[in-house]
Amino acid sequence: MARRSTLTVSISLLILSTLVIPSINAQDREVLIGRLSIIYGDSPSGETYTRYYITEASGNVVEVEFDTPPPYWYANQEIKIIVAGTAPTGENVVLAESYTPAEPITHDALPQAIGTRRIINILVKYSDHQGMEPHNPQFYDDIINLPDNSISDFFDELSYGKLSIEGDVAGNMWFTLPYPKNYYAPCGWGTACAYLYNLLIDAINLADPYVYFPDYENINIMIGNDLDCCAWGGSITLTLDGVTKTYGVTWDPPWAQNVRVLGHEIGHSIGLPHSGWVYAPYDSPWDVMSSGGGGGDACGLYYSMNSGSYMTLWCTLGVHTIAAYKDKLGWIDPPYKVEVNPYVTGVFTIEALSLMPSGSGLKMVKIFLPGQPTDNFYTVEARRRVGYDQWLPAEGVIIHKYEEGRNRCISGWCGSGPAYPIDSTPGDGTLDNAQWTVGQSYHDPENNLTIRVTAASDFLFTVEVSWAAPPATLCFDFGTSSSPVSPDCTRVTSNTQYSSILGYGWNKISKITSVDRPGEPDPLRRDFVRGTADREFRIRLDNGVYQIMVVIGDMSSKQKSMDIYANGRMVVSNLKVPKGSYAIVTFMVNVNDGFLTLRFHKDRDYWRINGVVVTPQT
User: Tell me: the pLDDT tens digits for 304-315?
Assistant: First the structure.
């Protein structure tokens, strides 16, 4: 379905960004530079969608489609896009060929959500609205501001009092949009078709006489009827009332106007992605940013234009978000979290995540993994049915694996986010029983890590973190798939390509071959891998200092000049080895990014490598 041009959107006295689609010839390349908006669409039946917009310095807003989407931490950052042409989804959506950040973007932390965040609710109904509005204006003041079971109360508890939310209702009235539903969302439940920007601008224009927008950080568009498949949440940069700033924005049809779903969308508006996606989309009941929540009473009725029938509205409540996300938002202070480095053991007392920190225990144990980047880790948190966590399916210790950049797709639905629970009952198709209880242990054989729950009392759990001893040395014997391997060494052939599971291997396996010389009795010397182009051999290691020993030679031919680089530094230059001889070269390397990368370069004919031995230095 082609997306409608928005160039005819009327502009009131506000200074508004205008959605502008550049004139693009698919044969040309055009550069767009601006601030990226990421908008998440969440359906009640489990589908998920994502929209992307660029706000240029001029204020123009361009909708963009990516073959490989930017990660969630690029939201609200300035990026440069090379435009390939018009996207298949519509004549007014551009297709990005590539993108790069205007400046380096770190993903160690989201912008901290601390202090007061003010929300303006704009209540709008279509020009062809059917039936009564789902709620009166007072309801929307209450859902933000009431002392209990409100968005303000919810985020106050989640943030341990660090984030205060206040809200107003624009004009204390329902506004009628200038167009019917089919203009803004010409589809039903099963499709993401909404023209979100059109709806946003029209709603802002209606509210303009009643609102000075720079006083607010969030804009909630409360819709009197269904939109498309979804409720939507994210952030976008706009110039309103002469001030340019990034606003959190949500688009909320009636079924989303409760603390559970609205809390999820506001979570997106302050930068949070989803979590879960182990067995299905939104499958984690342990996080409001997945499917966590429940309870609530029937609190209204509306005539659904998507369904053609009346639907009951439920005022459900959310559970807490997970410890890793709280930490990224700045909600867990240093005394209540601990970072555990590889091979460091410890026993830790963890307090229920939903309770205000009391000094009795930690809120999070963060465990870094051997040889892996520091944005891949485990977190350990405790969950009890107290506060908003009363809607959890069970109680216990929850272990999350956090893999920055993860975007798992299930049944075609992507958008997993980086964190997912480690199921204590793997393979049963549900995370409702993912909790770990006293006496249970999780063992990660790849990283030699064990996490054991040893005790529990009231709102506290005791957890032990232990490791198997790391190997003293790593030895790699390069050769063929059938030649003998030197004792205590790992076989490497020309087909051993690097993977995160192996933790070692070649960056490319073209233009390299395995060779065996059966006449040589030493298994480390008799075979080798050789190449005619530069190739890298990568080994995942803990950060630290290592002695590297390489063995190079061939009983049947001489080695002409070759060079070796270790993590970008030349360590062996112009090495030549006579026929029938073997060179043994040692050098030291300081690993500080979790990897040793050896690059082999030939000046003539071939480079070759027989063996590599890696020894950590104390």
Answer: 999 999 999 999
